Every structure is written in C-alpha cells, then in structure tokens.
Amino acid sequence: MKSISVLMVEDHKLLRVGLKSLFDETNDIKVIAEAETGKDAVEKAKIMNPDVILMDIGLPDISGIEATKRILNNNVNQKVIMLTSHISEKEVMDSLTAGAYAYVLKDINTELLIMVIKSVNDGAIWLDPQIVPLIRDKSSCFIPQKQSSRAAFRAQHGNLTEREYEVLKLVVAGQSNSEIANTLSISEHTAKAHVCNIIQKLVVDDRTQAAVKAIKDGLV
Q1: What is the pTM of this model?
Q2: According to a count of CB atoms within 10 Å of the terminal CB, is the N or C end of the chain lower?
Q3: Which CATH class is domain 4-135?
Q4: Phi and psi (nearest 5°) for 198?
C-alpha cells in the first residue's frame, strides 16, 4: 500500500522534528518535504506534489491561509490540513473558504491526527470538535450535512446508549480513557468498558476506527 506523502509547513523547528518523528513510526505516512514560510510551501507543493499538506496559519511571510489559496490554485487535487493553535471564527471560515479540508488544533491526540490525515487523503472533511460550535450556525455551506446531522447518526446507531454516545464524542475529541473518566466523573474502568462496548457495537477494531466511523457518519 502506497504511503501518504506529506508536506509539513511550520516555522517552529521543534514541532516539525516532533511530528516527523511521529510519522516515521508509521509506514502509512511519509514526510517528503518541510517548509518554514508560506512562499516556500507554495513552491515545494508545486515541485514535490504531496498528497497532503499540514499547514500552520501563522507564518513569517504570507499566512497559511494565503499559501493554501496559492497551492490549490496550482493543483486543486492537493489536500490541505490546517494545524494550528488558533481558535478564531474568522480564521476557520477563511481556511475553509480557501479550500482546506480540515481544521485541527495542535493539542490533538497523535493517533487522532494520523487518522485525520488518512481520512482527508480519502476525501473526508474534518473539523476539530472545539471549533465546530463557532461556525455551525453560520456556515452550513462549508460543513457537509452528514457532519452536522446528529439525528442521522443516532438513527443509524440506535444501539448506543446515551452514555456511550457521550463517550464516543470524547473519543473523537482524542481523549484517553482516564481523560474520559475525569470528564464524565466516572471510573477509568467504567470508561474503558464503555469504549469496548462502542467498538463492538460499531463493528470496528479499535477506538481510532470508531472515531473515523463517527466522523464519517456524522457525529461531529
């Protein structure tokens, strides 16, 4: 199976090194180029032709949003994932308008980030659960209907209990069993049991696949 080629655009070297080290541990994703500026990203996207571009917004020259516009103007088939620490309605909207497939915050769980890259490469749109409330009522044209249809998801997976549904949302958000337990004021053992039940009911192999299914079927 061909690995997903990635261009990483980030002006902080430490973060680039950390992400590259993470991707080196999987055969599914390969960083083929790095860029520290928006203009450099545009040139390297054109030359290296990566499948996916991880794009920071705050860059030293042009913004990641402007770089995204230029990259997609050159090649509409490339897929851009905004990976940023910014939670701004305007920047989210501008990113989606520019053509980004995903808007991800930098505190994302590493397993979930890998899942997002794979999903985007397959053509999915993904928005960090923290920013969905900022734009859901203002930008239905940017969010596919399947992503905002909680009722549709519940109808399709009616065998999930209300608590399991709450736990699944936290799995999608990248929380570990201990974090889920803390969020819901339950024991870690109970949280683990809920996750196991969810995996079984959704007919998937692990929590990452459960998150993928929830995203594709409309949980967030």
Answers
A1: 0.66
A2: N
A3: alpha beta
A4: -65, -45
